[in-house]
Amino acid sequence: MIRVGAGGAALGAVGALAPAWANTPVSGVTHAGPLTIDDILAAQTPAAPAVVRPTLTQAAVRRIAFLNLHTDERCSVVYRENGACVPGALAEVNKVLRDFRTGEVHPIDPNLLDLLADLSTRMDATGPFHVISGYRSPKTNAALHENSGGVATKSLHMQGKAIDIRLPGRRLAAVRDTALAMSRGGVGYYARSDFVHVDTGRVRRW
Fold first, then answer.
1. Which of 6, 43, 49, 136 is most buried, judged by most C-beta within 10 A?
2. How many whole angstroms separate alpha carbon 24 and alpha carbon 30?
3. Which residues, including other chains, have CB under 8 Å from residue 184's CB and lie 6 or more apart?
């Protein structure tokens, strides 16, 4: 039992003064006067163990959803878990975003999916992206280039690094502006055709 003597000095169980350490600073804090009983008890209480929480990367899952306007095919998948790509989900995305003219399937760049997922989050969207064009085979791209000067001969669509989209419920200009603010690649605005192009190439706009 610890008692307190006159003047606030701490006494031991047999009435003696507390040891010298009792009146020295606790945890680097200097006291103006003698330590009180609460100070002594606090100094003898072990610190609570640190709480270990999972990092955002460890806990995160990333989801993406598409509606292909040419085939009416849909997908809504978790394509990343704990920072790693989910192969089955990527395969489903590759199929939905295939060249609908030739049926050719090509891997879609996961960085493009990350860009789109972040774009959807920034715009507080809940529906799927409406897809006008995903992957394009070299044959399809060459045919489109012959009919339109707006189709590049070395389009990133042929590498699975570009997509033309709409986002239902969000103004097309707002989709463009948000994508531009992200500065994650190229952004093309096609108001007359009602779609925005985004890709994971160098940052540029048209």
1. 136
2. 8
3. 115, 118, 198, 200, 203
* 17-74 residue pLDDT tens: 444 444 444 444 444 555 555 555 555 545 444 444 444 344 489 999 999 999 999 9
Instruction: Compute how many other C-beta atoms are within 10 angstroms of the C-beta atom of residue 109.
Output: 18
Structurally, at CATH architecture level, domain 56-205 sits in 2-Layer Sandwich (3.30)
Closest CA to 143 of 129, 130, 162, 157: 157
Residue with the bigger pLDDT between 31 and 197: it is 197
65: which residues sit within 8 A by CB, 6+ positions away? Answer: 74, 75, 76, 77, 127, 128, 129
Mean pLDDT of the chain: 82
Alpha helices in the chain, H assignment, sequence order = 37-44, 56-59, 87-96, 110-122, 138-147, 172-182
- Would you kindly state where each structural domain of the chain is located, as residue ranges? 3-44, 56-205
Q: In sequence order, what are the beta bridge partners of 130?
A: 67, 166
- Single pTM value for the model: 0.71
Structure tokens at 1: 């039992």
Residue closest to 118 by CA, chosen among 206, 185, 47: 185
